[in-house]
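Field reference: sequence -> structure
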Amino acid sequence: MIIQPIVENAIKHGLAPKNISGYLEIRLEMVDDLLYCSVDDDGIGWDKSNSIKSSRLIKHESTALSVIKERLQIIKSFNGSVGKLEIIDKFKSGFGNKEGTLVEILIPIVKML
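Structure field:
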């Protein structure tokens, strides 16, 4: 449930505006006591998507980031481990000429008895 808003945003705000086929990769892997999740797309990119949203007459307020941060805080309350959320605009961040967005989330694993 933590990555659901990111996947939805990748499709809705990254890939859909392209009007052509796109690429979406979701990766999950364990790294020590953390679950590494990445959502990688070749959409229009974080910055371009935000500029389109800000130019609309009716403003859309995204709740995806606040929902994820809230969910990571809930996990932190169980064991004190802090997760991480990073959003990377690939074109702006030196991924060559690649467009799109890469979102990386580190989720602490809660071990319950």
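Note: Residues 50 and 56 are 10 Å apart (CA to CA).
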